[in-house]
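Researcher: Structure prediction, please.
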Amino acid sequence: MASPYRLVAPTGSVTAPAAAPASAPEGAAAATSPTQPLSDDPALEYRLGEQAYALGNYEQAVRHFERSYQLSNFAELLYNLGKAYTQWYDLKNDLSLLRKAKRLFQNYTKRLTENPEMDQSQRAEAEAQISRLDEQIAAEEARQAAPPPVVREDPGFDRAPAQPQPDRKPVHKRGWFWGLIGGLVVAGAVTAAIVLTRKPGFEPELGSIGPNTGGVALRF
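Model: Predicted structure follows.
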């Protein structure tokens, strides 16, 4: 990552990285705590950002690098912020983080163009980062815009056997109806034949008990 604290002084000499004040929090824990108050020392905030980045705490790295940039306006911090946002996206999968990283790299290269005397050694890498982010953003936007996949039924899936549908034919079109009618016709024909073949004067024998049966009376 770019280090903005090895800078060319007005006299042309190279200064060493700024040392953190004695009261600065020590150890990596200070760089990983989201409740740790930000300081007014850009060098300290840069160092805490480096620690958080090395530990994979990219959100905290962004927090400290942004504070250091606010205090110092060093262009190199734009490059560091672009890297931190890119890594943060890999953890959070939020497309807005990629867009923010791209803008930071673009602002960094813009600063290099406006100030040719600045260290240009990381310009090519920043431009390559912009190209990669363009491709990554386009691919993610296309994925999000694509319709959901159609779930096709497994041909080997065993379905429950279809239940037979009830017969919806009209009554006069059903076989059992005409069978019943035929039976009734045959029964009627037999009855008619029996009646027609009886001898004249024939009376059915209903029994010998009646009012004129020899004067025998029944008593109950």
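Model: The helical segments are 29-32, 42-54, 58-72, 76-92, 95-114, 123-145, 175-196.
Researcher: Thanks, that helps.
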